[in-house]
Specification:
The structure holds two protein chains of two kinds.
Chain A (H helix, E strand, L loop, with lengths): L9 E2 L8 H9 L3 H13 L3 H12 L2 E2 L5 H8 L10 H23 L6 H26 L4 H98 L3 H20 L9 H16 L2 E7 L6 H20 L4 E9 L2 E8 L14 H13 L2 E7 L5 E7 L13
Chain B lengths: L14 E5 L3 H11 L4 E6 L2 H11 L3 E4 L8 H8 L7 E6 L4 H9 L4 E4 L4 H12 L4 E2 L1 H11 L17 H11 L4 H8 L3 H17 L3 H9 L4
Helix pairs in contact in B: 2-3, 4-10, 6-7, 7-9, 8-9
């Protein structure tokens, strides 16, 4: 499987301030606590941590969690509880921040830090910058409700006020209020010039942006409607399945439809990709359709489908077909577990059962296409059955087996 | 799993509230369970569910996972502290593992899918009312996935974060489609012991604090 190089990003759903720490922790595979500590210690050392943090905030992209359409729609319509950063995480972050503030103050008090006249406006301005940037992130990721826009504006106002206050303090502290008037006049002239030159261009950019945003809202609404529609169909199918007058046929069709919708809405069963779970689900669906019997698949873990595993899955298919044909049941349970490179598949029915010792040579299904096939690929097959007790067939590949030793077919 | 319903129940039928935003489904479920248990109320969103539960204080609430107002977990969050005696059984068509685990972690004592048969549902209601946990094969599969070796062993730091060997065996048998009774027979233990193991797994699922458990659902597709 070709994989893109891993890129760090800021997870929008788990951020506390900006998501830099959480994103970096994910990328490096360490707990976010350590990242936060590193930033804090860096901040006390000449502010390097703060600069690094702000740079990453700007340059790491904000990543929305990728969800299936059904979950997206349910989230937008407020039909599920989506957890923000956990309380424990917030408390730990605040603790680290407090530690950093304490260290910083200690350095300041000891006289080895920067002058107070610089320190206070820098902190205030930094907070203002954080408020604005956070607002920017939220307006980009969140919905475009009226309340959301008001909040964004409020944040920008507060942030600008903080930064302006810090700047004013810096300027006036050195040279008094007269300096403010000079610099203020200069700034106003410069801003007017910039506005005249770039104004039209910025205006058209803003126009494009809001048009794009409207389009996004429309497509989200369409997606929500589609999700709702499909969701209802799912409900109806569940009922249909239970109350069917012509049980076998209707139930089979209903199940098939249900499976399709389910995977589309909730992305639970990824049909693509050559993995064990996908293959087992695919063969179960085949058996379900061909033999009009419900096949319930539970897959735990997953692994790529190599020759050995593919053989075991094919053998499992035979076992399902056997159960569908001979057991006289309307339901088969299949359990597939992939762990540590091994694979176990159980195919179980509560049907008529048989005496495994008396399986005649003519039952080629069990002997040839199940036992033989699995054993050729270094696996084992156990058959547990007794007349009237149902049947369970266990197909297994040992974990940590050598790389595909192809034996001669017996 | 098919017979049952004759299990210990008081002289009065159990009082049940159905919470689901699809009226048709509520009617269907009601028709199926009504003679055996009493449906005292129905609700279609979080607010009405909280109100109905407060009014009627039922024995068991059948709770949908997705619904307007924040979904099943929100109902649990707003009722469990004031009505600890009410038991919840999640009944959903959503197979999104993170939501199923989410509603269990919020306090539901079991999860069954909506195409469960009437007798099985009644059996599950009985079990939940008696304070036991109801694990369908699918939930058992999710649990095994969440607690299995897809997370580095070094990060598993407390007893709450792992299943005992016995609990794992029980979970695997349930995932393989065994009813509690069959699990008991298979492992040569009593049904009561099986119930104890399942309840213990439920407790771990609800109390374990490792953040992998909440993130696992997103990561599992990358295996």
């Amino acid at each position: 499987m070709p994989t893109d190089p891993r890129r760090a990003s800021r997870p929008a759903d788990r951020r506390i301030v900006s998501g830099v720490s959480a994103g970096l922790a994910d990328h490096l595979g360490v707990d976010a606590l350590w990242v936060r500590l590193a930033f804090t210690i860096g901040a006390v050392l000449n502010g390097a941590g703060i600069v690094a943090y702000l740079l990453m905030w700007r340059f790491l992209p904000l990543a929305e969690p990728q969800r299936s359409p059904g979950l997206e729609a349910a989230t937008r319509r407020g039909m599920r509880t989506s957890g923000p950063a956990s309380v424990v995480e917030v408390v730990r972050a605040v603790a680290v921040l407090a530690l950093g503030a304490g260290l910083g103050l200690a350095v300041q008090v000891s006289g080895r830090g920067i002058g107070w006249g610089l320190f206070v406006p820098l902190v205030v301005g930094g907070v203002g910058l954080g408020v604005i940037w956070r607002g920017l992130d939220d307006s980009r990721s969140g919905g475009v409700s009226r309340r959301g826009r008001l909040r964004t504006i409020a944040r920008v106002v507060v942030g600008v006020a903080l930064i302006v206050a810090a700047a004013v303090y810096l300027v006036t502290a050195e040279r008094g209020w007269a300096a403010l008037a000079d610099i203020g006049a200069f700034l106003v002239v410069a801003l007017v010039g910039v506005a005249l030159i770039l104004g039209p261009w910025i205006a058209s950019l803003v126009g494009d942006l809001s048009a794009e945003r409207r389009e996004r809202v429309r497509s989200q609404e369409r997606a929500d409607v589609a999700a709702h529609l499909h969701d209802s169909v799912l409900q109806t199918l569940a009922l249909l399945q239970k109350n069917a007058a012509d049980p076998a046929l209707v139930a089979t069709l209903a199940r098939r439809q249900e499976r399709d919708l389910r995977s589309w809405l909730y992305g639970d069963e990824q049909a693509t990709g050559d993995t064990v779970a996908a293959a087992v689900r695919a063969v179960a669906a085949e058996v379900e359709t061909d033999h009009r019997v419900a096949v319930e698949v539970i897959a735990v873990g997953d692994a790529p489908l190599d020759d050995d595993r593919a053989a075991v899955v094919r053998a499992a298919r035979e076992a399902m077909v056997n159960a569908a044909k001979h057991a006289h049941v309307d339901r088969i349970d299949v359990y597939a577990e992939s762990a540590d490179g091994g694979l176990e598949i159980f195919v179980r029915d509560r049907g008529v059962g048989f005496d495994p010792a008396s399986v005649a040579e003519d039952r080629m299904g069990l002997r040839g296409s199940i036992v033989g096939r699995v054993e050729r690929h270094g696996g084992t097959v156990d058959v547990r059955s007794a007349p009237g007790e149902g049947t369970e067939i266990r197909l297994a590949l040992a974990p940590h087996r050598a790389a595909t030793p192809q034996e001669d077919p017996r | 799993m098919t017979e049952a319903t004759s299990s210990p129940r008081g002289p009065q039928p159990l009082r049940v509230v159905i919470v689901d935003d699809h009226a048709m489904f509520r009617t269907g479920v009601r028709a199926e369970i009504e003679p055996v248990v009493t449906v005292v109320a129905e609700a279609e969103d979080v607010d009405s569910a909280v109100a109905r539960i407060a009014e009627t204080s039922p024995d068991v609430v059948l709770l949908d996972v997705h619904m307007p107002g924040g979904g099943g977990p929100e109902v649990l969050r707003r009722t469990t502290t004031r009505h600890p005696e009410v038991r919840f059984l999640a009944l959903s068509v959503s197979d999104a593992a993170e939501d199923v685990i989410g509603v269990i972690r919020a306090g539901a004592r079991g999860y069954v899918t909506k195409n469960i048969s009437g007798t099985e549902l009644l059996d599950a209601i009985d079990r939940v009312a008696a304070g036991d946990a109801v694990f369908s094969p699918r939930l058992a599969g999710f649990v095994l996935d969440a607690f299995a070796g897809h997370i580095e062993v070094a990060q598993v730091d407390s007893d709450l974060d792992r299943l005992t060997e016995r609990e794992r065996e029980v979970m695997r048998l349930i995932a393989r489609g065994y009813a509690y009774k069959e699990v008991a027979k298979e492992l040569f233990i009593s049904i009561k012991t099986v119930e104890t193991h399942v309840s213990s797994v439920l407790r771990k699922l609800q109390l374990s604090s490792r953040h992998e458990l909440t993130r696992w659902a997103n990561d599992r597709r990358l295996i």
